[in-house]
Design goal:
mainly beta; nine-stranded mixed β-sheet
């Protein structure tokens, strides 16, 4: 744990509260002061490049699920990304997180480098809906492209002949970590920033 300059304690990625921004440096009026913002969130587009980079650089995601009673569970999963909106992995269908998906398909996902030094962390937060993949063969192809030689998956690894199922998460919203004290923003503690695809 670390303390902010106001004495609040934060974890490795700090306290993450939802935020939206108007651009990578905010909106300013002619005077140089921050312009008033109209009501309602408006996602930023300037930081979207972090999304494909973090998905490409990291091999594991943390998948947060819940059962029918709302009891939470989180597990690390080796994954591959078809693109920024669809992630795939394989798991045993009787594992706790897989059973949870049959009851509650809404999931939260975090992708980050656990070896990053304190103060240098980057993270991607995703809101998604997950379940068995519609195209298990395509999922295996994506995963095998990230696996080392000799560790590739085959159709025999998948049910009904094998112990695994291919799963897919369809991402609805993307957020990136903004570390506390970032000079581009006014946050003292770490926060989440919603980002959208650059057009």
């Amino acid at each position: 744990m670390a303390n902010t300059k106001h004495g609040e304690q934060i974890g490795a990625h700090g306290r993450a509260g939802d935020r939206t921004e108007y651009g990578s440096h905010g909106r300013q009026g002619d005077s140089g002061r921050q312009a008033p913002q109209p009501p309602g969130p408006r996602p930023v587009t300037g930081m979207w490049a972090m999304v494909p980079r973090l998905l490409g650089d990291n091999h594991y995601l943390v998948l947060a699920t819940a059962d029918r009673q709302g009891q939470p569970w989180a597990t690390p999963v080796f994954f591959a990304a078809r693109d920024e909106d669809r992630l795939v992995w394989v798991s045993a269908p009787d594992s706790r997180h897989s059973r949870n998906l049959t009851e509650r398909p809404d999931v939260a996902i975090t992708v980050f480098d656990s070896h990053a030094p304190v103060g240098g962390a980057e993270a991607l937060y995703l809101e998604a809906t997950a379940g068995p993949a519609d195209d298990p063969v395509a999922a295996l192809t994506l995963l095998n492209a990230r696996l080392p030689a000799g560790k590739e998956l085959t159709g025999d690894d998948l049910a009904p002949s094998g112990p695994l199922l291919a799963y897919c998460a369809d991402v609805r919203r993307h957020f990136v970590l903004i570390r506390g004290g970032d000079s581009r923003f006014d946050n003292v503690t770490d926060t989440r920033l919603r980002v959208t695809r650059t057009r």
